[in-house]
Amino acid sequence: MKKLLCLIMILGAALGLKAQITPVLAVKPDNSDIITQIFGKNKELLLSDFLKISPFEMKAFQAVFLEYETEKRPWLTERIALLKMYNEEFTSIDEKKMNSLTRQIINNDLEFGRLQMRYFRRINKLLGATRTAKFFQLDNYLEQSTRAYIQHQLPFIKELESDRQLFTHGSKPLTSR
Q1: pTM for the whole thing?
Q2: What does DSSP assign to residue 27?
Q3: Are 43 and 35 in contact (CB under 8 A)?
Q4: Distance CA 111, CA 134 (A)
Q5: How far is CA 81 from CA 74, 108, 127, 145, in A?
Q6: Are the C-beta atoms of 85 and 101 separated by less than 8 Å?
């Protein structure tokens, strides 16, 4: 259910983009700068602190983590490219192209789920069930935070802004204009 809600949010934000390229979509596919901006630490340090990885476990964990992040990079690159495509072509996109882009976004999320499943088994062997669950909880939280950060930077189209209603205490709804 959470994944469906996240997908709806992504599609809603992507569909509501202006027809110009926004600077936030030029982010690096590894999202490391965004995570550092949001949390003040890089992802590896956040994970190490959160999971309480011992020096003995660190070398093996770093190897698996690096492989995971390397395999995840094309997924992130594709997701950003799809958002750029929506952003650049929104005013001229037809039904066929919209259908194709929506399917690509859904497939992109499915691929990410399969990637996580493959690495779940490997990380579980290294860290055990509880810390593996914590790893994916934090990894998903960082991904969602990054998505929210990017979506927050993407403006909605004027139609959505003009239809939005503002409510005040006990009074009738007012339009935003």
Answers
A1: 0.65
A2: -
A3: yes
A4: 21
A5: 10, 11, 34, 18
A6: yes
The two tokens of residue 129 are 């069930």
In the predicted model, what is the mean pLDDT of the chain?
74
What are the CB-based long-range contacts (under 8 Å, 24+) for 139-147?
139/47, 142/31, 142/35, 142/39, 142/43, 142/46, 144/6, 145/35, 145/38, 145/39, 146/31, 146/34, 146/35, 146/38, 147/6, 147/9, 147/10
Token digits of residue 35? 């995570």
- Cβ atoms of 160 and 22 within 8 Å: the answer is no
d(CA 134, CA 145) in angstroms, rounded, equals 16
Q: What does the alpha-carbon distance between residue 100 and residue 106 come to, in Å, rounded to a whole number?
A: 10
pLDDT tens-digit series, residues 95-152: 888 888 889 989 998 999 999 999 999 999 999 999 999 999 999 998 888 877 776 7
Element (H, E) at 78: helix 55-89
| Amino acid (one-letter) located at 142 | L
Q: Given the structure tokens 């190897």, which residue do they identify?
A: 63
What the block records as the tokens of 58 is: 């660190």
Least-confidence region, from 40-44, 72-76, 98-102, 163-167 = 163-167
Single out the residue of 85, 103, 106, 75 nearest to residue 15, CA to CA.
85
